[in-house]
Amino acid sequence: MLDFLHIENIAVIKKLDINFGNGFNVLTGETGAGKSIIIDSINMLLGAKISKDLIRHGQNHAVVSALFSDVNEGVYELCDELGVYYDKEDVFSISRSYTIDGKNTVKINSTPATLMQLKAVGAKLINIHGQNENQSFMNKANHIRLLDEYAEAFAEVESYSQIYSKLNAIKQEINSLVEENKQKDTMIDILQYQIKEIALAKFKDLDEEEKLIELRKKLKGAEKIVKNSSTVYKALLQNESGVSATVLIEKAIEALNRISDIEAEAVKMVEKLSNFKYEIEDIAESAKGFCTFDGVSDPQKSLEQVEDRLALIQKLERKYGSNIEEILKFKENAELKLKNFEDADNKLEDLKFEYKKLYADACVLASKLHEKRTVASKELSKLVKEALVFLDMPKVQFLIEVKETQRDGKLMLNSLGCDDVEFMIATNVGEDLTQMNKIASGGELARIMLALKSALTDKNGAQTIIFDEIDTGVSGSTSQKIGVKLAKISKNTQTFCVTHSAQIASLAENHYFIKKSEVDGRAETNITLLSDDERVDEIARIIGGIDLTCKQFDAAKELIYQSKELLKALK
């Protein structure tokens, strides 16, 4: 159960520490005292989305934390699944802080956790039935989930949903193949043409285009290269006149040799000139090699061939990719698509066979779910009707319709099975059963919701449940019966109720008073566990308002006495 709640810097709450008791806990106070702020704080603790506006003005963060005892095994099993630390010998704790810039800090048992983990664990610890939840119960789409909660059918729904997801995936693949097959022949012709066109190019070198561009540049300058490289060769090595750099160097070497016996330095000069001669000869031969163009005999013809090849490459690039590597990748993908088309008929038959098998499996699970829901619907309908009769709706009729949806003798499957589930009700004698959303009375709706919650709580064993003004739209003996129903729930589940009803408040085992006061020029909300005498004062206030009389105090005492007697009868 929820033992302790700490709230800090949330709206009108500066700092609040509350110890709670087991059984039936009631929270009362004047309108605007801060009751809804406490509910908002608990919602924050359970991982709900919040606004930075909830943070108390002037503060940069808000904190909510709670301690729990006697945590059930379901919570520990969930922690094991989520990888959340716990110690069964210690109290169970959760906390969340939220900063003005939107940052969350979450801890479970003092260990950092994610918001997702907090939401999952929090849902197992506390169940809040707010005023807005009545409207969600009115939505037919939620009825099947409520019925499944009572039937404890979530494991079966999960097993079914896994098969249904696979079924949907296969169906989409089948539809895709069928659509593709409509244009199959055309696509095969296109792919075959593309593959052939690329194959005819006979690419062997990924750098071919770059090499061709370089060769084209050289071939375009062929005349210039021949003329100038010939000039270099003739000037350095050999020409018609017989006068070249090497010839002149040879003459210089001969002259130096003639004086080498006189000038010792001349020997070194001869050696240097000999080396120069070899280098010049090498340069001359290399320059002569420029004229060969890598074996090209006719530069102009070769240039035309290079231009044609580059034009082909650029044409293919415009169609299939920005370079040769991408063109070849396109061809590879086209070959794979062509193979898939050729195998499509076999694949389609395989998929249809698999779909048929999975559909049969899904139908078996959906039928089992239908049977379980049908049994549960009868049980839940009876429990809700009994609860509503007790809550001053003696002529009420309540029925949960579970219809197996079919078309042409085949089950129509959806993500939750094959059932159409709807809660039907008639609140007055002689009326036909109608949809929940046709209910006009807020008081009737509140009682229906309480009856449902009562049955669900008894079934799922929630640890702590909070009702926020469940008494809206009711008064008198009906309010007292709502209080009795809440007190019954509290025998197995720690129960909280935020209320303006004196009848409900009088049945509380623990009565907390919420008050807003001014402290240092600012509003602050505080909560106090009332003593027996203080309870009389508060219930008298609820009965009478501002100016209280002795009769109202006596009425409060009498109401509390009657409630104690009712509680004794419940034990």
Account of the 3D structure:
The structure is a single chain. A 6-stranded antiparallel beta sheet has the order 2-1-4-5-6-7, covered by helices on one side. A 6-stranded mixed beta sheet has the order 8-14-15-3-16-17. It has a 3-stranded antiparallel beta sheet with strand order 9-12-13. The model has no long low-confidence stretch (mean pLDDT 88). It has helices at 35-45, 73-82, 115-125, 133-138, 143-151, 154-181, 184-200, 208-220, 222-236, 245-259, 265-289, 299-320, 324-390, 442-460, 476-489, 502-505, 532-544, 550-570, and strands spanning 2-10, 13-19, 24-28, 61-68, 92-99, 104-108, 111-113, 126-129, 397-404, 406-407, 410-411, 419-426, 434-435, 464-468, 494-498, 510-519, 522-529. The two termini are 20 Å apart. It contains 18 helices and 17 strands. It is of the alpha+beta class and 571 residues long. The chain is elongated, with a radius of gyration of 45 Å.
In short:
With 571 residues, the chain is α+β, with helices and mostly antiparallel strands. It has 18 helices and 17 strands.
Give a quick set of tags describing it.
571 residues; alpha+beta; six-stranded antiparallel sheet; six-stranded mixed sheet; 18 helices; 17 strands; 56% helix
Note the topology:
Layout: E1 2-10, E2 13-19, E3 24-28, H1 35-45, E4 61-68, H2 73-82, E5 92-99, E6 104-108, E7 111-113, H3 115-125, E8 126-129, H4 133-138, H5 143-151, H6 154-181, H7 184-200, H8 208-220, H9 222-236, H10 245-259, H11 265-289, H12 299-320, H13 324-390, E9 397-404, E10 406-407, E11 410-411, E12 419-426, E13 434-435, H14 442-460, E14 464-468, H15 476-489, E15 494-498, H16 502-505, E16 510-519, E17 522-529, H17 532-544, H18 550-570
Parallel strand pairs: 3-15, 3-16, 8-14, 14-15
Antiparallel strand pairs: 1-2, 1-4, 4-5, 5-6, 6-7, 9-12, 10-11, 12-13, 16-17
